[in-house]
Each structure stands twice: as C-alpha cells, then as structure tokens.
Amino acid sequence: MNSHPNISSSEGRLGVLLPGMGAVATTTIAGVLLARKGLAKPIGSLTQMNTIRLGLRTDHRTPLIKDFIGLADLDQIVFGGWDPIPDNAYESVLKAGVLNSEHIDPIKEELIEIKPMKAAFDSDYVTRLDGPNKKTGANKRIIAEQIREDIRDFKDDNGCDRLVMVWCGSTEIFLRPGPTHDTMSSFEKAMENNDPSIAPSMLYAYAALMEGIPYANGAPNLSADFPAFEDYSKENSIPIGGKDFKTGQTLMKTILAPGFKARMLGIRGWFSTNILGNRDGAVLDDPASFKTKEESKLGVIDHILQPDLYPDLYGDIYHKVRINYYPPRGDDKEGWDNIDIVGWLGYPMQIKVDFLCKDSILAAPIVLDLALFLDLAARAELGGIQEWLSFYFKSPQCAPGLYPEHDLFIQHWKLKNTLRWLAGEEQISHLGREYYE
After folding, report:
1. Which phi and psi (to 5°) does residue 290 adopt?
2. 3-class SS at 385?
3. Which among 20, 16, 86, 45 has a CA at the least distance from the CA of 280?
4. Where a domain ends, among 306, 324, 358?
5. Residues 259 and 218 occupy one common structural domain
6. Are residues 198 and 285 in the same domain?
7. What parts of the chain have a pLDDT lower than 70?
C-alpha cells in the first residue's frame, strides 16, 4: 500500500446528521458551538487537539492532525437530527443535565434553532423510551424513504456540500443477522414486509447509504453490521464504521488489558458493574436492550488477551458485566471493576478501579472525530468498513473472516498510520532506525 488516494477539497459546508438528539448529541452540538466561539476547549478530540509525528524523531515534525490532513473546520459544520421527543436542542440539553449554565447560556439561541425531525422509531425495539415525534407509514420501506427525503431537504435547506451521519440513539433489542440482511434486495423486501428483523437504526443506515452518505453506529445495535450494507458501502465507496462508542468502563478495559498482556500477567476474573441514570440507563434497564450492550462489552477482553494463545494466563477467565439504572446519578456514570490477576509462580493479586465519569462528556469528542474522519474517508473514496476508526468503538466492525482489534494502543497506531498513508507520508514502525542511518 505505497500509493495514496487523491483527497478532494474539504471546503464547503458539512452537515452532521445525528439520529437520537439526547444527551450525547446535544453535548456534542453544544461543545462544537462553544469551541468555535473560543468559549471552551474540545478536550478529548484527536482531530482538534492531537498532534501526529511525521518522519524521524530527529525531524521534529509534529503538526496538529487538523492542520496536517485537511479536515473540515468546526466553522463549516451544521447539525441536524431526528428524535421521537420533539424538544429542540436547548430543551434537550437542559433535560440531559450534563452541562452547566455557563456552557448553555452563550449558545442558547443557536440551540433553540436546532429542532429534531420526526424519528423512525418503534418502541418494540427500545421498550423504555417513547415520544410523539414519530414517522408513520404503511411499511418500513416507506419510512426509510421519508428519512431519505429528510436528508435531501436538510442538505438543500442548509446549503451543505457534504453530509455524514453518526447514530447517537438508544440501544435496541438484541438482533442477529439473518437471511434478510444478506443482500440489499432481501433487505428491501424485508422492509416492505415489515419484517421484525429490520430495526429502526437500520432504516437510518439504509437511507444514508442510498444517499451516498458515510454512516457510523455509536450504539451496539446491528444497524449496518451485516453483509448487505457492508457490500453496498464497499461497492459504492461509502465509508461505514461502528459500533458502540468506547467511553467509560470499556475504555478502561482497553487501556488496562493490553498492559497486563504485555507483562504476561495472568487474569482469573474480571467483574464489572455500572450505575447510570440518563436516558441510556433507562433503556438498558430492559433486559433485551442490555443483551445487545452485554455482547458488545464482553467481547473486548477475549479479543485482547487471546486465551487460545495463552491458555495458562487467560484460558479460564470469569468475566461478568452488569449495568444498573440509578436515576439519581443522571449522566454521571460510575464504572466499578474488580480484577483478580496472577503473578510470578501463580501468586494472586487484585486491582480495583472506580471510574466516576460523565458518559456524554466522553462520547461527544468521539462523535465529532468520527464525523470529520468519515468525511475525510469519503473525500478519499475509501468505501466499506473503516477499520482504522476502531479506536472509537467498543465492538469494532471488521472485514469478514477477521477478528476485531480491541487493543487501544494498536488502534491508535493504526489510525495515525492511516492518516500518514492518506497524506503520502511514510508510515512509522517505531524501529528507531534513525540511529542506524
């Protein structure tokens, strides 16, 4: 992979469409509005604050990523979205309770102007949430076409040159891919037949793909993680990525587990529990939605530790995950972990982690980065699954026949090397060869 693609200009207006205008989406929107006014820092965003090393260490070339690769500027972004609850972004951000008034009042009028479009929503798939701002139609194909019309209208009304879509909605009930998800033809027929295997998030992904728009899935929903959409996106040079934003407890696991493995420390058990009280917590209080989240969270440890290669160290781990809805906590999630590790000669030790985090504060920079990087990928005509964006996901999509890479540090390395390749710079191996030249 020596040659690199031609990347079209980043000039013009970039529309960022967010299905689900709750805490994560409105925290993202508010943060971008504040950052471009110089009223707050976009902390946590690689696209805004991270540098990238180019060439040898002795070259001292470390530009900011946003200056190096030609990303869209924050001033170019215009936000839109859908939600079954009709609150505008100002009303939604107040209800979410994530931000203080000092970060809401200066952008109140701009937030008021951002109103959610009617959502493709079905309480059969998210049982603990409902609202009146919903689309209706004789079948799911018709509703998907309504989303496509929303996309076209939004683009025209806001003078957008390009669009991206990032799912910020709730976790749906657990679904596995089946025959209806094999081809675009079978999927479209299933929509027309109102097949229960077609969830609302899939309608958004379908609409995005049909409109040629990059799509990222920030929840553990099946959404676009199946052959019909993967094949279509690759054939038509449309970037897709997912799934499930890597924020609190799983972020810590992808930091800690690679460290244990690097030191060849064994693990006997890893018990994780969470409490949170936001809309996400209420949705996950439903066992069917929790099952979807559980699948996303449980796969991380096995893929990082590779118990088949290291049976003595990781062949018999007891891994348990719990999520508890606790309304008083609001968006301030607490993730508690007990890790039973094994050292020299089999002696046991323990590690306790108590991460008191703000879920939407950790998710917001991910939404921004994905929007900007997906736009970059589209301008470079990189279609299909964008594995280089696995850094942002709990359960990264990967090409058929491969296992997902969960190690945060390998993911970060891959992301930056992809940016270097896109820009025609040499990829870095960290061999330290400058000492031998």
Report:
1. -60, -35
2. strand
3. 20
4. 358
5. no
6. no
7. 1-2, 280-281, 284-286, 288-298, 432-437
- Considering the domain architecture, whether residues 236 and 150 belong to the same structural domain is answered as yes
The reported pTM is 0.92
Domain region containing 342: 249-358
Candidates 200, 16, 30, 190; CA nearest to 125 is 200
- Chain centroid offset of residue 17 CA: 14
- Cα Rg of the chain, angstroms: 22
Q: Are 343 and 349 in contact (CB under 8 A)?
A: yes
Percent of the chain with pLDDT strictly greater than 70: 94
How do residues 7-54 score in pLDDT, each as one tens digit? 999 999 999 999 999 999 999 999 999 999 999 999 999 999 999 999
Give 116's contacts (C-beta < 8 A, 6+ positions apart): 21, 81, 82, 83, 85, 86, 87, 88, 133
Amino acid type, 128: R
Q: Are 212 and 15 in contact (CB under 8 A)?
A: no
What is the dihedral sign for C-alpha 223, 225, 229, 233? positive
Coil, strand or helix at 16: strand
Alpha-carbon torsion angle 341, 346, 347, 352, nearest 10: 0
DSSP helix, strand, coil percent of the chain (3-state; round to 5): 45, 20, 40
| Same domain flag for 78 and 177 | yes
- Is 4 inside a domain boundary? no
Stated as kind and residue range, the H or E segment containing 240 is strand 239-242
Please state the φ and ψ torsions of residue 240, each to the nearest 5 degrees.
-135, 160
CATH number, domain containing residue 25: 3.40.50.720
The domain tally of the chain equals 2
One-letter amino acid at 365 equals P
State how far the Cα of 31 lies from the Cα of 233, in Å rounded to an integer: 30
- The total of other beta-carbon atoms located within 10 Å of residue 9's CB is 9
DSSP strand pairing (332-342 vs 348-358): antiparallel
pLDDT of residue 271: 95
Q: How far is CA 388 from CA 256, 308, 408, in A?
A: 21, 25, 12
Q: Tell me, letter by letter, the H, E, C secondary structure of 318-350.
A: EEEEEEEECHHHCCEEEEEEEEEEECHHHCEEE
Residue 205 token pair: 């992904």
Closest by Cα among 224, 231, 216 to 164: 216
